[in-house]
Design goal:
Blueprint: H1 3-17, H2 30-34, H3 38-52, H4 69-80
Helix pairs in contact: 1-3, 1-4
């Protein structure tokens, strides 16, 4: 799957999980710009697992591992490679 397709599908996941976000800058800091916390991160990752048919390990669930939505998309791309 192309990176652009991953970003498009992941943006859909973001809007499903966080419908209050209108515009999403994939490179903006998730915590500072969008108020993402550890609970919303877990919800995003679980939804991404379902959408992309992948799995995140327990070690990949820490909010400190991701600064932006783009970081999550990069991990998804690695898992699909």
């Amino acid at each position: 799957m192309e990176k652009e397709q991953i970003v498009t599908k992941f943006t859909e996941v973001i809007h499903d999980v966080l419908p209050e976000l209108d515009e999403v800058d994939m490179h903006a800091n998730m915590v500072n710009e969008y108020g993402v916390n550890s609970v919303s991160l877990i919800r995003l990752l679980v939804a991404a697992e379902s959408k992309f048919d992948i799995s995140f390990t327990d070690y990949e669930l820490a909010l400190s591992d991701y600064d932006s939505f783009s970081d999550i998309a990069a991990v998804i791309a690695e898992k699909l490679a």
